[in-house]
Design a protein that fits this description.
Layout lengths: L5 E5 L3 H13 L3 E5 L2 H10 L4 E5 L7 H9 L9 E6 L5 H9 L4 E4 L4 H14 L14 E3 L2 E4 L4 E4 L2 E3 L3 H11 L5 E2 L1 H5 L8 H14 L3 H4 E4 L3 E4 L5
Parallel strand pairs: 1-2, 1-3, 3-4, 4-5
Antiparallel strand pairs: 6-7, 7-8, 8-9, 10-12, 11-12
């Protein structure tokens, strides 16, 4: 079987997780399940995965705390794509909280399985897993001491690796590929990205925090229009 990605499902609903795993297996993914946050983190520490499908409302350690701990893991494991998955219809601000702790996407469990698979594949395209496809061999983008390696999906500032999730890297890349041009939130969201505008603001905040002081003049908010990647910082 030509497996198209390694998925870890972390969900205390054993029956639901098993049904989802069977569906994803039929779609060509390699899948493993964990019944709670602790075991999910242990499995992730021991094995490599491309996407974690993470239940929001687990007892004990909930999905938000698991996501926080994933982002604190050493090395590349901290950058695994996280899709927050919940059976509870939450308000917009709660979804934003999920993104603020490091989730890359958010879906209700009532979503059609085809959409879930499409979102997973979109996350894979943004991750290192999909970095060797079309476009390989493109030159890195360089702006002063900031380097964006589009093939390795790495960002370096003053030679230091900048920790970004797959979605954050893609967003920064889109801005940097068109320096000096204002891009609207719709243009930045893209066809496969999260569908509410606030998601862009949250992710831009993460990128700015990761880049530190250099981002204050580099990534510019254009009120009522979107964001602009400045060609120069002076």
């Amino acid at each position: 079987m030509n497996l198209s990605g390694r998925i870890l499902i972390v969900d205390d609903d054993a029956r639901g997780a098993e049904a989802l795993a069977e569906y994803l297996l039929r779609e060509g993914f390699a899948v493993r399940c964990a019944a709670d946050g602790e075991s999910g983190l242990a499995i992730l520490a021991a094995q490599d995965f491309d996407v974690v499908v993470l239940d929001w409302t687990m007892p004990g350690m909930d999905g938000l705390e698991v996501c926080r701990r994933i982002r604190a893991l050493p090395g590349d494991k901290a950058h695994v794509a996280v899709l927050m998955f919940t059976g509870v219809k939450t308000e917009l601000m709660e979804r934003v909280i999920g993104l603020e702790v490091g989730a890359d996407d958010y879906l209700l469990k009532t979503v059609e399985r085809r959409e879930l698979v499409a979102r997973i594949r979109a996350l894979l395209r943004r991750s290192r897993f999909g970095a060797s496809g079309a476009g390989a061999g493109r030159p890195a983008l360089r702006f002063g001491t900031l380097e964006i390696d589009r093939d390795a999906h790495e960002v370096r500032l003053d030679g230091r690796l900048v920790p970004l999730t797959g979605g954050q890297f893609e967003l920064l890349q889109r801005l940097a590929e068109q320096p000096g041009k204002v891009l609207s939130r719709d243009e930045l969201l893209g066809r496969d990205a999260e569908t509410f505008d606030r998601a862009i603001d949250v992710q831009i905040g993460h990128i700015r925090a990761a880049l530190g002081d250099s981002a204050k003049k580099r990534i510019v908010t254009v009120r009522g229009a979107g964001y602009l990647f400045a060609k120069r910082q002076d």
